[in-house]
Amino acid sequence: MSKKILLDKINVPGIKTYEVYRQNGGYASVEKALKTLTPDEVVEEVKKSGLRGRGGAGFPAGMKWSFIDKKSGRPRHLVCNADESEPGTFKDRFLMEYIPHLLIEGMITSSFALGANLSYIYIRGEYMWVFKILERAIAEAKAAGWLGKNILGTGYDLELHVHCGAGAYICGEETALIESLEGKRGNPRIKPPFPAVSGLWANPTVVNNVETISAVPWIINNSGDDYAKIGLGRSTGTKLISASGHIKNPGVYEIELGLSVDEFMNSDEYLGGMSSSRPLKAFVPGGSSVPILPAELIFKTANGEDRLMTYESLSDGGFATGSMLGSGGFIVYNDTACVVRNTWNFARFYHHESCGQCTPCREGTGWLEKILWRIENGQGREEDIELLWSIQSKIEGNTICPLGDAASWPVAAAIRHFRDEFEYHVRFPEKIKHRDHFVAEPFSQVKHLVGKQTV
Amino acid sequence: MKVTIDGQSIDVEPGTTILQAARMIGGDLVPPAMCYYSKLKGSGGKCRCCLVEVSKGSEADPRPMPKLMASCVTGCMDGMEVNSKSSDRVTEARKSVTEFLLINHPLDCPICDQAGECDLQNLSFEHGNPKSRFIEEKRTFEPENIGPNIQLHMNRCILCQRCVQVADQLTDNRVHGVLDRGDHANISTGISKAIDNEFSGNMIDVCPVGALTDKTFRFKSRVWFNKPYNAHRECTTPGCCGKTTVWMFGGEIQRVTGRKDEYHEVEEFICNSCRFEHKDVNDWVIEGPREFEKDSVINQNNYVQKLEKVQIDTEKNILLGRDIDRKKISMAEIPLNNNNKNS
Amino acid sequence: MERKHYKQEINMTEALMNRINELISHYPEDKRKSALLPVLHEVQDAHNNWLSTELQDKVAEILNIKPIEVYEVVTFYTMYNQKPIGKYMFEFCQTSCCCLNGAENLMDYTSEKLGIKMGETTPDGMFTIAGVECLGACGYAPMMQLGDFYKEKLTEEKIDQLIADCKDDKIILHDK
Fold this sequence. Notes:
heterotrimer, A: alpha/beta, Rossmann fold, Ubiquitin-like (UB roll), de novo design (two linked rop proteins), 3 domains, five-stranded mixed sheet, 19 helices, 43% helix, B: alpha+beta, Alpha-Beta Plaits, 7 helices, 19% helix, metal ion binding (chain C), iron-sulfur (chain C)
């Protein structure tokens, strides 16, 4: 068994409740931080740990904390991003549902580090039952004296509340999340100013993912250096991976960063291999936004090294032959899956979730979806593949927030690695009429037809 | 602070945006702006037309910025170097944004009252592709009546949100906003309510396209057949400057608007009373004709510059039809000049 | 855009108002608007799971904001329903990972079983079915949301059972 930091107590009966959580060493980090450390020392430990943001971008958490504006004298806020909506990702919900006090403990310790006296957990509206779990857990923590005025007699005050969204992927973007928390439409803000200077109600704000904040108690209880020893290189610590698709054991796993993709995929401790006898075709390592990779680039990088579960190894080769760790949404496809259909599905998702504020994303995501729908339904034209490529390249990098990039990358990667599948759809519309077209006749069996057809 | 745009340097105050600096320099390097409006707080950043390349961040941190930046919301830094018209990347991005803005646009300029003074028309003229790559069905919206003075054509809207900012910043009771989301986002009151506060007419002036037009001027004239004169009156509405442009056809005032500068922004906002209720010449002190912009459609009527001979390149396939028609009307024996294929 | 108007009976009970005031208390005194999203959820849950214009106006009044600010928000987020819907709304996740595990077939099955298409409501007002985007349960696919809860690893048999339970009034929709 490898190192567990977040889920080490997940199997303790009753760990959901305050009493059991406390009996198992819960809230120790709050005691330690408030009584023996200064806020800056907490920040320093997190910096030393090398902990990187677990929401997808992988930005060093301690560094993000150090940007918060303390000079202005305005009230500061910590906001936890629990708007988990990236297709393929469901790890935060697992943490909050089964060990809610871990997040609350992390919120208190982290808020102390930032000097925040009013903090929020922003949870997606669909997780309504988890919202209620957190509400009750916060009430328990408050009753036990971990929240409120003069916590542990140290003079530190903190109010923590949970706030629910109402169905918008874009609210996972930190400035859209802040807008939504202010009771507005989830339109991302123009940056700069960054939230660290002007965030919630124009106050300095840090927004962190659930998993990031949940790792803080361990770092404070042990040390930043101890955390940095776990993992590999700049990918320190452990990471929750949400695994789904055509695998034997889907679910949430805590892995030590540096584990090989091969072991994660095939060992019984983790995914246990494929769900059926159908062979592996492709995978997405970090949620729908990151590039899909074909079978031959999954276990080995382009230059023949073992592919590892680290930020660096998964992006080895750039977008040409690599992908990204992202939020850790590990989606596995066997050969019954159609890459074109899957790409259309993702494109529909991004079209549906675009906020509509800036031009390239508002107009481009819908266009991508319409073309992909035509190709998948046998009305594709040969030039549509180039058109798709061109549209995605025109969206990428030209939008206010990263949703434009997130919508472009899956399309680009699908064409880059599975172009022949697109050509097959365009050239043999009769063969792809049924949506399960590759179930009876996998692409590997008909691939040879693509080259023979002259257009 | 010194900033250099397309090789031209200028000293600016801290807090100046790249777009403002470019406008101070003037000329071709000024990025187009569809959503930014200097008189409206919080405008800009949305349309992405004004993207520029920052090739040097500042003297202190000379690294180039990896992404193109929206010049209207990016502040100048000392020593910053910016490429606008001189950059192929920028040109390419502007073309892309123009294409995106046009795919769902109805392209109904021939019946649009904004035609001739439309920023989207100007943008397409410079950056548009004459051929559309969009073969899907265009998005449309159910029409909504927002009162007797303002016509809302949602299908033409580019969601710059200037009209929302006008309502927020000029009035104290905004009744319209952006509803729905993504490519279905639309300007609406949600309840088909008339937008009738005293300054609502300014929504028309700030609208860069034909989405909000003057109902009292609807289909009256093409803008280039009107002669604009600056005029003023003693307006009693608090907050109204009373200084306008009146658009005349012969002795008749067909339309009243705010006075716009070279970037099509009004100099000062005017009230609805001036705009909609004073169409009699005797209501106004006419100051004199406005200067035309050199390249404006209105100026094309003056025929002062030398006109190039218009070359019409008719597509070959169109001419094929003539052959068929010629046979139908029994003129087959008369040869056509440059088409011997069927004879 | 012209919108259709639907009538709704408004009943702001004391319990509901208490809950609303509690939610408002989570934000600074001068930031009442911040409570908008949670308040709309509560109000919707107490009003047959939809929000008429009048009800939205009522929320605007409580939070001391303009009605348009509420309309803007209600139309942006997918979880607020702007017209009457069935008592039980089956919201199937139709994003990639669920589709890999048969979500589309299951949606077809439910649609056929209830005799309505996606997005429609049965004539008796009992069921509405809809396809929605990723609900964050990719490892437990196929799945759907019903009220405040998720129903996961669905099969045709489980759908049959759910429909039967709904008809027998055995389903709890909200966690109060």
